[in-house]
Amino acid sequence: MTQVTLRDLTKKYSSQVKAVDHLSLEIPAGKITAILGPSGCGKTTLLKLIAGLVPPTSGDIFFDGISQLDIPAEKRGAVMVFQNHLLFPFLSVGDNVAFGLKMRGEPPQLIREQVLQILELVQLAGYEKRQPSQLSGGQQQRAALARALITQPRILLLDEPLSNLDANLREEMRELIFNLQRQQGITTVFVTHDQEEAVMLADQIALVFEGVLQQVGEPRAFYERPANLATARFFGANNILPGFDREGRIDTASGSLQIEENQIPPGPVNLVIRPENIRIVTEKGDRNNIIVGRVRSCIFAGTRTRMKITVEGALLEVVTDASPLRCYQEGETILLFLPPAKLWAYPAKESSV
Ligand SMILES: Nc1ncnc2c1ncn2[C@@H]1O[C@H](COP(=O)(O)OP(=O)(O)OP(=O)(O)O)[C@@H](O)[C@H]1O
Ligand SMILES: [Mg+2]
Hints:
By secondary structure, the chain is an alpha+beta fold. Helix content is 25%, strand content 34%. Residues 13, 17, 19, 37, 39-45, 83, 193 line the site of adenosine-5'-triphosphate (ATP).
């Protein structure tokens, strides 16, 4: 099992395009790490840097503490399964999967055995004679995975392995990758722009915007304590209340609010709260953090109800877990409780993506 360390890694394709920007990251051995971020943020470039397919402009890459900068791609033992060009179209599935072992000059009998074994593993037993064009998209993805796995890589790099698949196949493929990884314990890095996918599959997520690492940690942390406003918004915490931090209390247009954790200096802030963390209450009582709103819309969505509520200074989205007995009417006044532990403050000068 191989631990990967990226140290202050930068990749510039030209003076204008900085695809990866001073990025440092520990990729733990034998775990699944997701590189998550919007299109063009440098995810594929990061995988290519690890694989040795493009050289970094500066910084270093270590496998188990050994710098890989002078080690060519084919000697690194990191194999990459690409976003698009999955299989050689002119080779059968079996020959595609056998490719890596043939290149190494392994004996034909051993290659045959291993191909059959690995095809079985990715649930493609019996498909070895087919051409890639005779496979479905999901089967092609699995054959490409088999082609990578057969070489027993130290590190498996998967570029958007679930894209181009419909919902059922995505789930099947997700389970397959998860189970294979757990069985074989290969250090796996996969790239996605889909936060749900990252959360379901990864032990660790590294969120990247414009080549810059925003946050790294367990999936749960991105919901419970996003590192910055942009991260909070990317993970669906889209309610923003501008305010002014007066050491402990935050003055907003909707009143003065308390937050549990306050690590930022006094000054202008943005308060952020997830839609499902806002609670509708019927009376104020002696509680803090109750604000008054007016219902803009209320949509019954099966097991949940989604509301837009105008408060002084902001428009908030509220998602209630169970459906209320009735939908609220447009224009109705409503009381909202914003729990101090679920309200996060970020300096207002932080950019938002
Ligand atoms: N060979 C190249 N030459 C010049 N610029 C490149 C090259 N490859 C990528 N880029 C640029 O580098 C940036 C990052 O590209 P990259 O392919 O790593 O993004 P990505 O996060 O994988 O995007 P997507 O989710 O769309 O696949 C983009 O601005 C892209 O245009
Ligand atoms: Mg890409």
